[in-house]
From TrEMBL:
Organism of this sequence: Suillus discolor
Coiled coil spans: none
Subcellular localization(s) per the UniProt record: Mitochondrion inner membrane
Protein name, entry field: Isoprenoid synthase domain-containing protein
InterPro entries reported for this sequence: Isoprenoid_synthase_dom_sf, Squ/phyt_synthse
Length: 318
């Protein structure tokens, strides 16, 4: 018989107790979410994606639940990497969602608030399973490789996540248009790059550089110095400027797709393209602080954003 040392036994009991409390808390949240999946998704988006919550108000009433369910799904997957301590745990969570999407399409949604909300909100829309799986696969790749060597790799990942999410929204609104899809593709890349730029200080605190290596190498960015000191440098600002320029170029390309209509987006598609307004806001703030991503103003909620979103929606421009 193996006798466990008292100190080790005490440590294990403490870990077990913490795990059980976590399980209980998670179970209570899940049960509450299952009772009202739509409210669960709405609260999750409001808490974790203020900009996404703002634009949700622009969707027609019959599509708001669908948007919030899809956005909650997107947030759930985007936060897997930070939520788990081991790659295998992240893989298990993504496997759950891969199976859940099949079950939803087979009218057998699992008892998970987001899955139930997606089933209720999208069962009449026949959304492509391919798009869901593409997002899941891209998030799985993140578990194994958190950084990008090239801009091409980063752009490809953005197309598989942000752009693909916009494709789902166009599908939900029943807007099958190659012009809209092309514009959404570029907007998704711009959205993904600006989001990563703004989140650079957070990732740097975890020892991860989100700017592709080919760009940081070009500008002689000392990554270890950024990680240890947590502040900007001339080289980093140049690298951020280059990546922000790429994001802006994609934004301009998306706008160009609507040249023939005087730059005005079709009214029924404007809720989707309102996602561009936070991108414009972030890029404008970056420019005002000389591309210093550690400037606190980038992390402060812009009080003008709600007004800018509504103005853009009614003008049908971005």
């Amino acid at each position: 018989m193996i006798v466990m040392p008292l100190s080790l036994r005490s440590h294990c009991l403490q870990r077990l107790s913490s795990f059980r409390r976590l399980q209980t808390s998670s179970a209570l949240r899940s049960e509450a979410g299952i009772t009202n999946p739509a409210d669960y998704c709405k609260d999750l988006v409001r808490k974790h994606d203020y900009e996404g919550y703002l634009t949700s108000q622009l969707y027609p009433k019959q599509f708001q639940g669908g948007y919030l369910a899809l956005r909650a799904f997107y947030i759930e997957l985007a936060t897997v990497r930070e939520a788990v301590s081991q790659t295998t745990l992240g893989q298990a969570r993504l496997m759950f969602w891969r199976d859940a999407m099949k079950d939803i399409h087979n009218d057998k949604p699992p008892r998970h608030p987001i899955a139930l909300a997606m089933y209720e909100a999208t069962r009449d829309n026949h959304l492509s399973l391919y798009h869901f799986n593409r997002i899941i696969e891209a998030r799985e790749q993140e578990l194994h490789n958190q950084t990008h060597l090239t801009l091409e790799s980063m752009t490809s990942h953005a197309e598989s996540t942000s752009s693909t999410f916009l494709y789902l929204l166009l599908e939900m609104l029943k807007l099958p248009s190659s012009t809209l899809a092309h514009a959404a593709s570029h907007l998704g890349v711009a959205q993904s790059l600006t989001t990563l730029i703004r989140a650079l200080p957070f990732h740097a605190s975890k020892g991860v550089m989100v700017i592709p290596a080919e760009i940081t190498a070009k500008h002689n960015v000392n990554q270890q110095e950024i990680f240890s000191k947590g502040k900007s440098s001339h080289g980093l600002e140049d690298a951020v400027f280059e990546l922000a320029t790429v994001a802006n170029d994609h934004l301009l390309t998306a706008r160009d797709m609507f040249k023939e209509s005087g730059g005005r987006v079709p009214p029924n598609a404007m809720p989707v393209f309102s996602a561009a307004i936070p991108v414009v806001s972030i890029l404008s703030t970056l420019e005002s602080v000389n591309f210093n991503v550690f400037n606190p103003s980038l992390q402060i909620r812009d009080w003008r954003l709600a007004w800018q979103v509504w103005r853009s929606y009614y003008k049908r421009t971005f």
